[in-house]
């Protein structure tokens, strides 16, 4: 059953990529109007039109770089999509699509690909051919492993996999050299092993999983600024936490943490530390506040 929820992204990246200048690139919502336009058509939206298929004439719009078909009744990605060779931004959120066909590899110019709220159980390996891809959204599908195809796209800057059933992540995320934002919240992850993260990672969301222990390599992510691991089963924060030199916000709420190591005092840029919902004694909270005089500590 498709999961329905409100997703609010903390990332500014997708917003930047999805901004379409309405004057320079007017968005058409009717295929006839687009075909009759005397100027090249760059942007097309069929959002919430009740469609089961794309109008086949769309292939005549050979300058199209933005296509939005979210909130329809598509059960598959029509072949016409893959004839749009100039496509850079593709939004197919909120349909009933079960798989991504091999032809996805044809969209060589694709930069942003959003498929939230569909019925995907896996990601086609051919997605790895899209080496210009920077943003992917596969939230609220039925994925049970981290898609290996994504590990082959070094250009990716933002990956959203919230609200799936992912329980396993193979090593290799660190190969996504440009990755800055990773959202794996609301999955079924319990063991991260000693997973390494890309050195450029800035935003990491792992809340609402079943994680017991954070990997030591996580604390080598010196560019990390925002970390959310709330609502897990974490029992301790290791002394290696001092490695997060640029951390600004850390949410550890609703875990099983009983103390915070003295080394947290080295986090000079930390502005917000959330510890509510943990069995930490009050005197220890006061000690933490003393160690972090410039940090707002919530308990």
Automatic annotation (TrEMBL):
Record domain Disease resistance R13L4/SHOC-2-like LRR: where: 183-274
Assigned keywords, A-Z: Leucine-rich repeat, Repeat, Signal
Pfam families listed in its UniProt record: LRR_1, LRR_14
Signal sequence coordinates: 1-18
UniProt keyword Cytoplasm present: no
Coiled coil, from the record: none
GO CC annotations, alphabetized: cytoplasm
Keyword Ribonucleoprotein: no
InterPro entries registered for this protein in UniProt: Leu-rich_rpt, Leu-rich_rpt_typical-subtyp, LRR_dom_sf, LRR_domain-containing, LRR_R13L4/SHOC2-like
Superkingdom classification of source: Bacteria
UniProt xrefs under PROSITE patterns: LRR
Protein name from the UniProt record: Leucine-rich repeat domain-containing protein
